[in-house]
Amino acid sequence: MSLDAREPPGGDFVAYIEQLERAQVARQAVPGTMVAPPAGAPARLTASQAEAAAAALQQTPGPPGQARSHAQSAPKFSASQQPAALSAEQAQQLLARLNAGGQAGPSLVAIVVGIGLIIGGGAMNAGPVPFFLGVAAIVWGARRLERLKKSKP
């Protein structure tokens, strides 16, 4: 009586393992499949083997949907199509615009977390600690928002 449906009939595990090994060797013969190397194979490639494999990968396109190397996916620009460089003034303006946005986010998160601490602490009868932490988070967030409003023109 066998307990597992995958167990070989008659309990001949040696023949079953040999059959699995033959199937694995057959799968290795199919190009494009990934199978673990055999037990006696070297763990690392030599430098020449690695170079040959890299050259082969760069020459042959991968299957659809597979990631490409940076060299294949990088945009190619000719001398007339080079992207325009920013002047120092334009770079400073861009940096100021990037830094200006999103400053209210942490303040709003602190206010929401503070409200959650007050409501959750009260619902679970957790005591005064969540209440005071919630009040502190709300006060910190509100003061920071007020400072941001005053600093913006």
How would you state the average pLDDT, rounded? 74
Task: Detail the poorly predicted runs.
Answer: none
Order of helices and strands: HHHHHH
What is the percentage of strand-forming residues? under 5%
Radius of gyration: 32 Å
Kindly state the number of beta strands. Answer: 0
Please summarize the sheet with the most strands. Answer: none
Distance between the termini: 84 Å
User: Which percent range fits the helix content?
Assistant: 55-70%
* Structural class by sheet pairing and helices: mainly alpha
Count of discrete alpha- or pi-helical segments spanning 4 or more residues: 6
What does this 3D model show about the protein?
By secondary structure, the chain is mainly α. It has a domain at 104-151. Helix content is 59%, strand content 0%. Helix 5 (105-123) runs antiparallel to helix 6. The protein is flat.
Defining traits:
single chain; 0% strand; mainly alpha; 153 residues
Topology of helices and strands:
Elements: H1 13-29, H2 47-59, H3 70-73, H4 88-100, H5 105-123, H6 128-151
Helix pairs in contact: 5-6
